[in-house]
User: What shape does this take?
Amino acid sequence: MKVIFIFFICLGCGSTSQADKGKTFHTWRSNNNSPRLILSHASFSWANCGNGKDPAILKTLSIQPDPISIPGDLKASAVGSTAINLVAPLKVNLTLNKEVSGIWVRIPCVEEIGSCVYDDVCQLLDQAIPPGENCPEPLYTYGLPCHCPFKAGEYSLPNTYFYLPSIELPYWMTTGNYKAMGVLTRNEQELACLKISFSLKSE
Assistant: This one.
């Protein structure tokens, strides 16, 4: 599950909106000119939340179904870019909230899942995918990196299907609505900021 959180943040390290048939998207820009996207009549949404000067931004992100079902199939696509090389150490400060009786409650960091600080996601990636091994699919097929450094440029993940297996989720990660915000920094310099709202439907 921790790797899933990091996956969303790294998508922001990789403006235009992208819509799938049957969904309605709106794109707008905030005062800091950061691209924002809202998905109407559904719970999923995302936004860059930096100061407009972050070198790494997310340009498009689409995730279906909404809500996300665990277990179940997931279709995702994304485009992100970075104006600089992203090198270790890359720190992520993740804040996760769940809606409980109409009130947003911050989820604490328990066993490195929840509202946690990850001092170096490069190390986490090395632990999940040992250096020297090929990146897992679909990253390998599309030539997307899975280890630091992430070179300056644009990264694109076309519409891809994933299967989310039945796993033992934390007691708090049940069916419901969630909001997550991740801030990527290196040596106290903000590199990216991403907000995601989503819903889960778990067995």
About this structure: The mean pLDDT is 81. The chain is about 10% helix and 45% strand. The longest helix spans residues 2-11. The two ends are 16 Å apart (CA to CA).
